[in-house]
Amino acid sequence: MMDNLPVDALNILAHLSSKGKGRAWVYANCKKGSVLPDELLERRDEIIQILESDQSRFDGIITFYDSSFPKIRAQVSAGDYPLCFFYRGDISLLNTKKIAVIGTRNSTPDIKVREEAVVDALVEKGMTIVSGLANGCDSIAHSRCVERGGKTVAILPSPVWRVIPDSKIALAEEIVESGGLLLSEYYTVAGKTELTPRYVRRDHLQAMLSDGVVLVASNEDGGSRFAVNYALTNDIDCAALYDSATDADNPLFALNRQVVKSRGEAGVIDAKDAKNSVGRFIDRCFNPKNLFDF
């Protein structure tokens, strides 16, 4: 068996693959060093075969037993709590100061310029940028962070050795080569019915694993709403790029307007004054007593 396949991680994966045992059950019942029931040994062997196949390529698996597992500041239920991650790259980034930068797949040149100004300010402040490696704003966040010498974490809805979409494989390699991190809960490729829930889970994890969330731009039905709503309901500070002079009637800023309505002035990131605006947001993210002090 490969050295990067810890038995505890394999046991967790075997339990999760069995009917009726979700995250909450595993979190409550699976202790470090526990023995796997005989009826799941065959399933564990199947998982090992997948992970030792020529197609798989990852640096390791980290579980919630490990001291280096990310500290989660969100109010996470047992059924939501992540139990293990596959990774490629620098796993220590999970315990740095992290800001998720998310948004629409349909970015425009103006949105790109504004987003890059915010990413520049975040990198200058030493923040690790978290995003989802999707087209549009996610990819802009990762790429700009790498260009500016920052560190970035890409959370995937697919195995770290099977990046989707295919058009982002090169960017994923660039992230790892620059000292960043690819992270996933999955070791199988999703079928059609499974993929949508994985995208939602990916979006939840972007917020859950971060100290704050910056929404670049999104219409009200965009996938970014899953990360934004998770942040707003789980004590994670959230702010959005917004300029009332240009964005008040733009459908690509509909979700941004909801954030601003919920958070007031504390929910506004002004890209024209990115350094100061981002600085104030970071201060709130790491000063919990002022988290909802608008």
In short:
The chain has 294 residues and is of the alpha/beta class.
What does this structure look like?
Strand 7 (212-215), helix 8 and strand 8 form a beta-alpha-beta unit. This protein has two domains: 7-75, no CATH class; 91-290, Rossmann fold (3-Layer(aba) Sandwich), CATH 3.40.50. The longest helix has 17 residues, at 192-208. It contains eleven helices and nine strands. It has helices spanning 7-16, 23-29, 41-51, 109-124, 137-147, 169-177, 192-208, 224-233, 244-247, 254-263, 274-285; strands at 60-63, 84-89, 98-102, 128-131, 152-155, 181-184, 212-215, 237-241, 268-269. The protein has a nine-stranded mixed β-sheet with strand order 1-2-6-5-4-3-7-8-9, with helices on both faces. Helix 1 (7-16) crosses helix 3 (41-51), helix 4 (109-124) crosses helix 11 (274-285) and helix 7 packs across helix 8. Residues 289-294 have low confidence and may be disordered. With 294 residues, it is an alpha/beta fold. It is elongated, with a radius of gyration of 19 Å.
